[in-house]
Design goal:
Helices cover about 35% and strands about 25% of the residues. It has about 200 residues and is α/β, with parallel strands linked by helices. It has a single domain, classed as Rossmann fold (3-Layer(aba) Sandwich). Strands 3-2-1-4-5-6-7 form a seven-stranded mixed sheet, with helices on both faces. It has a two-stranded antiparallel sheet with strand order 8-9. The two termini are about 20 Å apart. Bound molecules: 5-O-phosphono-beta-D-ribofuranosylamine (GRF).
């Protein structure tokens, strides 16, 4: 048997995407293991979820460091020690420096709740809602040095219909995330993702 594909999830908040991945692994739709949760918020619900799922956590306090690079070097050591194959950002609310981005180039992904390049940054769902677009959605992308600028791996559109409000849109977006993110992670676990510059293709299963 080959050894399992080893994932670290970075998250700062609720952790519903973390939970979806845990369940996708449990039900066999993703052939991988979540080896570590990295969080900058000791009290975030995601930390409790990791505890319940039996996943080790590495929690740090960014205020205890003078520079981002300092805590990222410690995180990098944790990731290397645990031989992480893929870093999955799931609501991790900090910008990353080259310390992590360069080490995990092509092996670090993020999910963003808009159709990039529209509405990058914070509150993407609110930005799309306020703009009044009729179609928004979600994007899974590789992480590079910019804010939500990495090469796109997969996207899923979500319609904004008459009668929707911000809350119903948020629900639709989160439901779409829960469908798409485990599928993309499984592509990585199976070695199906091929990257050439900004063009990402998925080899046939
Ligand atoms: C998701 O909407 C994701 O797109 C964004 O942050 C949110 C995280 O939600 N990057 P959760 O913590 O996984 O519930």
């Amino acid at each position: 048997m080959s050894s399992p594909f080893r994932i670290a999830v970075f998250a700062s908040g609720q952790g519903s995407n973390f939970q979806t991945l845990v369940e996708a692994i449990q039900n066999g739709s993703v052939d991988a293991e979540i080896v570590l949760l990295v969080s900058d918020k000791a009290k975030a619900p995601v930390v409790e979820r990791a505890h319940k799922a039996g996943v080790d956590s590495y929690v740090f306090d960014p205020k205890a460091y003078a520079k981002r690079e300092e805590y990222e070097l410690e995180i990098a050591a944790e990731l290397e020690r645990r031989q992480i194959d893929l870093v999955v950002l799931a609501g991790y609310m900090r910008l990353l420096t080259p310390v992590l981005v360069d080490r995990y180039a092509g092996r670090m992904i993020n999910i963003h709740p808009s159709l990039l390049p529209s509405f990058p940054g914070k509150d993407a769902i609110g930005q799309a809602w306020n703009y009044g677009v009729k179609i928004t959605g979600i994007t899974v992308h590789l992480v590079d040095g910019g804010m939500d600028t990495g090469a796109v791996i997969a996207q899923k559109a979500v319609e904004i219909r008459d009668g929707d409000n911000l809350e119903s849109l948020e629900e639709k977006i989160h439901a779409a995330e829960k469908e798409l993110y485990p599928v993309v992670v499984s592509w990585f676990a199976k070695g199906l993702v091929h990257v050439e510059g900004r063009k990402v293709s998925v080899l046939q299963n």
